[in-house]
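Batch manifest, entry 17 of 40.
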Amino acid sequence: MNAVLPDNHINKEVYDRLHNSVVDGETFPLYVSRVTNGNPKQYFLINTQLNDQEYNKCGNGWTNSTEIQVIVRLKKNEGSKVLMNNATQEVLAELEDFSLPSATGLKVNNVALSIANEIVDERGSEIVYQKIIRMETSIR
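Output type: C-alpha coordinates
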Protein backbone atom coordinates (compact mmCIF):
# COMPACT_ATOMS: atom_id res chain seq x y z
CA MET A 1 0.00 0.00 0.00
CA ASN A 2 1.46 3.32 -1.02
CA ALA A 3 -1.58 5.54 -0.59
CA VAL A 4 -1.61 8.01 2.31
CA LEU A 5 -4.50 7.42 4.74
CA PRO A 6 -6.70 10.50 4.20
CA ASP A 7 -8.38 10.78 7.64
CA ASN A 8 -6.24 13.57 9.14
CA HIS A 9 -6.37 15.62 5.94
CA ILE A 10 -10.16 15.23 5.67
CA ASN A 11 -10.63 16.17 9.34
CA LYS A 12 -8.56 19.34 8.89
CA GLU A 13 -10.37 20.41 5.71
CA VAL A 14 -13.82 19.77 7.20
CA TYR A 15 -12.75 21.61 10.36
CA ASP A 16 -11.49 24.59 8.37
CA ARG A 17 -14.77 24.78 6.43
CA LEU A 18 -17.24 24.24 9.29
CA HIS A 19 -15.75 25.23 12.67
CA ASN A 20 -17.58 28.20 14.20
CA SER A 21 -20.10 28.45 11.37
CA VAL A 22 -22.91 30.86 12.24
CA VAL A 23 -26.41 29.62 11.43
CA ASP A 24 -29.48 31.70 12.36
CA GLY A 25 -27.28 33.74 14.72
CA GLU A 26 -25.97 30.63 16.54
CA THR A 27 -22.32 29.54 16.43
CA PHE A 28 -21.58 25.87 15.72
CA PRO A 29 -18.13 24.69 16.84
CA LEU A 30 -16.82 21.48 15.28
CA TYR A 31 -15.32 18.61 17.28
CA VAL A 32 -13.61 15.41 16.21
CA SER A 33 -14.71 12.19 17.97
CA ARG A 34 -15.89 13.83 21.19
CA VAL A 35 -16.99 17.17 22.59
CA THR A 36 -14.11 18.71 24.52
CA ASN A 37 -15.48 22.06 25.65
CA GLY A 38 -18.26 21.88 28.22
CA ASN A 39 -21.72 21.02 27.01
CA PRO A 40 -22.53 23.20 23.98
CA LYS A 41 -26.13 23.65 22.88
CA GLN A 42 -25.31 23.19 19.21
CA TYR A 43 -22.28 21.78 17.43
CA PHE A 44 -20.92 19.66 14.59
CA LEU A 45 -19.14 16.37 15.30
CA ILE A 46 -16.97 14.26 12.99
CA ASN A 47 -17.76 10.88 14.42
CA THR A 48 -16.89 7.99 12.12
CA GLN A 49 -14.41 7.60 9.28
CA LEU A 50 -14.08 4.42 7.26
CA ASN A 51 -11.72 3.69 4.37
CA ASP A 52 -11.63 1.04 1.67
CA GLN A 53 -8.43 0.85 -0.31
CA GLU A 54 -8.82 1.16 -4.08
CA TYR A 55 -6.35 -0.37 -6.50
CA ASN A 56 -6.28 0.63 -10.16
CA LYS A 57 -3.87 1.28 -13.01
CA CYS A 58 -3.63 4.98 -12.10
CA GLY A 59 -2.36 4.22 -8.59
CA ASN A 60 -3.73 3.31 -5.22
CA GLY A 61 -6.27 5.40 -3.38
CA TRP A 62 -9.18 5.29 -0.99
CA THR A 63 -12.93 5.35 -0.85
CA ASN A 64 -13.55 7.31 2.35
CA SER A 65 -16.80 7.63 4.26
CA THR A 66 -16.93 10.40 6.85
CA GLU A 67 -19.94 11.02 9.09
CA ILE A 68 -20.62 14.53 10.33
CA GLN A 69 -23.29 14.97 12.96
CA VAL A 70 -25.32 18.15 13.35
CA ILE A 71 -26.47 18.31 16.97
CA VAL A 72 -28.89 20.82 18.52
CA ARG A 73 -30.04 20.61 22.15
CA LEU A 74 -33.18 22.47 23.20
CA LYS A 75 -35.36 22.60 26.28
CA LYS A 76 -38.57 20.64 25.84
CA ASN A 77 -41.39 22.67 24.33
CA GLU A 78 -38.98 25.43 23.25
CA GLY A 79 -38.00 25.58 19.61
CA SER A 80 -38.11 23.07 16.81
CA LYS A 81 -35.90 21.27 14.31
CA VAL A 82 -35.55 24.42 12.19
CA LEU A 83 -32.04 25.27 13.50
CA MET A 84 -30.86 21.69 12.94
CA ASN A 85 -32.28 21.67 9.41
CA ASN A 86 -30.69 25.04 8.57
CA ALA A 87 -27.34 23.91 10.00
CA THR A 88 -27.59 20.71 7.95
CA GLN A 89 -28.14 22.81 4.83
CA GLU A 90 -25.05 24.86 5.75
CA VAL A 91 -22.92 21.69 6.02
CA LEU A 92 -24.17 20.39 2.67
CA ALA A 93 -23.42 23.73 0.99
CA GLU A 94 -19.91 23.95 2.50
CA LEU A 95 -18.96 20.39 1.51
CA GLU A 96 -20.50 20.12 -1.97
CA ASP A 97 -17.22 21.20 -3.61
CA PHE A 98 -14.99 19.35 -1.12
CA SER A 99 -11.33 19.06 -2.09
CA LEU A 100 -8.00 18.71 -0.34
CA PRO A 101 -5.05 21.11 -0.63
CA SER A 102 -2.50 20.01 -3.25
CA ALA A 103 0.20 19.96 -0.54
CA THR A 104 -1.44 16.80 0.87
CA GLY A 105 -0.62 14.87 -2.30
CA LEU A 106 -4.24 13.63 -2.33
CA LYS A 107 -6.82 14.42 -5.00
CA VAL A 108 -10.56 14.10 -4.42
CA ASN A 109 -12.08 12.61 -7.59
CA ASN A 110 -15.68 12.39 -6.45
CA VAL A 111 -17.85 13.60 -3.55
CA ALA A 112 -21.31 12.28 -2.65
CA LEU A 113 -23.27 13.76 0.24
CA SER A 114 -26.29 12.13 1.85
CA ILE A 115 -28.30 12.33 5.04
CA ALA A 116 -27.82 8.95 6.65
CA ASN A 117 -30.07 9.33 9.69
CA GLU A 118 -32.06 11.69 11.87
CA ILE A 119 -32.40 11.07 15.60
CA VAL A 120 -34.64 12.80 18.14
CA ASP A 121 -33.74 11.91 21.72
CA GLU A 122 -35.48 13.15 24.86
CA ARG A 123 -33.04 13.48 27.76
CA GLY A 124 -34.54 14.77 30.98
CA SER A 125 -35.68 18.33 30.34
CA GLU A 126 -34.06 18.48 26.88
CA ILE A 127 -34.68 17.28 23.37
CA VAL A 128 -31.56 16.49 21.34
CA TYR A 129 -31.95 16.70 17.57
CA GLN A 130 -29.30 15.04 15.42
CA LYS A 131 -28.80 14.68 11.69
CA ILE A 132 -26.03 12.48 10.40
CA ILE A 133 -24.51 13.53 7.10
CA ARG A 134 -22.40 11.02 5.21
CA MET A 135 -19.71 12.36 2.91
CA GLU A 136 -18.31 9.68 0.58
CA THR A 137 -15.17 10.58 -1.33
CA SER A 138 -12.99 8.81 -3.85
CA ILE A 139 -9.40 9.90 -3.24
CA ARG A 140 -6.16 9.24 -5.10
